[in-house]
Write a structure and sequence with these properties.
binds flavin-adenine dinucleotide, D-Amino Acid Oxidase, Chain A, domain 2, single chain, alpha/beta, globular, 470 residues, 18 strands, disordered C terminus, FAD/NAD(P)-binding domain, eight-stranded mixed sheet
């Protein structure tokens, strides 16, 4: 991919670096642990494994550049799983479900400490998040999960008076809101490049422009790349949306769907007038939520999931193009933040998200390979949770016995989507029903019963972006 076509955040991050990409692999290298994919998951796995066992030799191969996938282009809203508590308990039981909800908040604090410790300059701001409603139909969407957290003494959330919600969100569009301080925003490209820098400083060997082709099982196993091979005792596959292309057995475990983004030019005075609070993120409660946040140079970014679906799980070129929905997103941004009505859009983009059937990631041992582990399925909420993914995968690769290797998160995918063409056709039907439902609700009009019925499949399939109504 050409640099000028890259999404906004990763372009900005690469432009700030003096050195170019790491050289591709040529010839044969031998290593203890091979990691495939240099997004947050692969890099956290490498860093945590190195920290636990400094003499472990690690090689990462990355098809593009580190951060070329979702990690360099996401919305940078760092959120926990606390609002997924009901799903976590339903899937994993009370003890593990509550442990994971708490661990997901701790992961954010761990990233906070890591970013300070390693001086990663990535506009990291641990300023919390607001989950709001922007239509009467959305009101009360968070009540049951907040009550469940409260009942267990786990709640970090507080319901704010409506004037305070509007003040912090910088917008009068909100009708109610819950605030948690345990959330952050970040320039995601700078974060992933910072993780890359730390991994390299720990002695990890990185080959960019080096896609994995085939994997030959064995002790050791061989990872074949276009001009070389890695011979490794163990491997971790952290390729996210590309998993189904490499390993067809996973094609039905995820749906690949875009999240689309717009970002404005810097306009610090509009930002100051709006009152949008520092590094807070704001999410409404529609099925495919609108989420927005500011940047330190006075921009506002708004995103929304659930637009483009990949037929057969193939990440096609459309996922690397500017967003086809930029106009609608800018309208939504300006409706939310009228102070930006005359501020030009600087860029739009989109990218592939890996939606699992549960809305939560899954990890496991690659079928047919006892020494290869994988993790994916973050379902649009991965910036914070990939820190946990790194803990799971590094623990598996190091053969540890701990709360991560014992977690049922490591039991592989829980549920499958239908085969094609049913999956694609079904996704489009559901998406269009959600669009009609959202439009009706935005205008306080009744929703057609069949649209409500179809839209229900998205919630049950865990497709809701960022927040979970589970
Ligand atoms: C547009 C968008 C917006 C999002 N917004 C948010 C948000 O605001 N908050 C949030 O929490 N989450 C968000 N997410 C989700 C979050 O970005 C991801 O869950 C997270 O980045 C996943 O990290 P990863 O390392 O698993 O995957 P990736 O970052 O996608 O890394 C996978 C890597 O594998 C590489 N690869 C693929 N195939 C091969 C191969 N054959 N050989 C070698 N390497 C290969 C890719 O090039 C890529 O670099 C968003 C996602 C998208 C796409």
């Amino acid at each position: 991919m050409n640099n000028h076509r890259r999404p906004f955040w990763i372009s900005e991050a690469l432009a700030a670096e003096p050195s170019g990409p790491a050289r591709p692999l040529e010839g044969t290298v031998r290593t203890d642990l091979a990691i495939v994919g240099a997004g947050y998951t692969g890099l956290w796995t490498a860093i945590l494994a190195k920290q636990a066992q400094p003499d472990l030799d690690i090689v990462i191969i990355e098809a593009d550049v580190s951060g070329g996938g979702a990690s360099g282009r996401n919305g940078g809203c760092v959120l926990s799983w606390s609002t997924k508590l009901a799903s976590l308990i339903r899937l994993y039981g009370e003890t593990e479900g509550t442990r994971l909800a708490v661990a997901s908040e701790q992961a954010i604090l761990d990233i906070d400490r890591f970013v300070q410790e390693h001086r990663i300059d990535c506009d990291w701001r641990l300023h919390g998040t607001l989950y709001t409603a922007t239509s009467a139909a959305q009101m009360g969407a968070s009540d049951s999960v907040m009550a469940a957290l409260e009942a267990r003494g786990l709640s970090q959330w507080s319901r704010l008076p409506i004037d305070e919600v509007r003040r912090r969100a910088g917008s009068r569009a909100h009708l109610e809101g819950w605030y948690s301080p345990l959330a952050a925003t970040v320039q995601p490209g700078l974060l992933v490049r910072g993780l890359r820098r730390v991994a390299l400083s720990l002695g990890v060997r990185l080959y960019e422009g080096t896609p994995l082709g085939e994997l030959t099982s064995g002790q050791p196993l061989t990872l074949h790349t276009p001009r070389g091979r890695v011979i490794a005792d163990r491997a971790v596959i952290a390729v996210n949306a590309w998993m189904g292309e490499l390993f067809p057995a996973f094609r039905r475990s995820i749906v690949i769907v875009s999240s689309d983004m717009v970002i404005t030019e810097p306009d610090p005075s509009a930002l100051a007038r709006s009152g949008l609070d520092r590094g807070i993120s704001v999410l409404d409660s529609r099925t495919f939520v609108h989420y927005y946040r500011s940047t330190r140079d006075g921009r506002v970014m708004l995103g929304k999931g659930g637009n483009t679906f990949a037929y057969g799980g193939r990440v096609h070129e459309g996922f690397d193009a500017p967003s086809g929905y930029a106009g609608a997103l800018m309208l939504a941004l300006r409706r939310m933040l009228p102070e930006f009505s005359h501020t030009p859009m600087a860029a739009s983009w989109n990218g592939p998200s890996d939606r699992s059937a549960t809305g939560l990631p899954f990890f496991g041992t690659l079928p047919g390979h006892s020494n290869v582990w994988y993790g994916l399925g973050y379902s649009g909420n991965g910036v914070g949770p990939t820190r946990m993914g790194g803990a799971v995968l590094s623990s598996l690769a190091l053969g540890l016995d701990n709360e991560w290797t014992r977690s049922p998160l490591t039991h592989g995918p829980l549920g499958a989507f239908p085969p094609e063409p049913i999956r694609y056709t079904g996704s489009i039907l559901v998406r269009n029903a959600i669009r009609r439902q959202e439009k009706a609700e935005d205008h306080n009009r009744p929703v057609a019963p069949w649209d409500r019925w179809l839209a229900g499949f998205a919630a049950s399939a865990g497709k809701a972006d960022k927040a979970s109504k589970a």
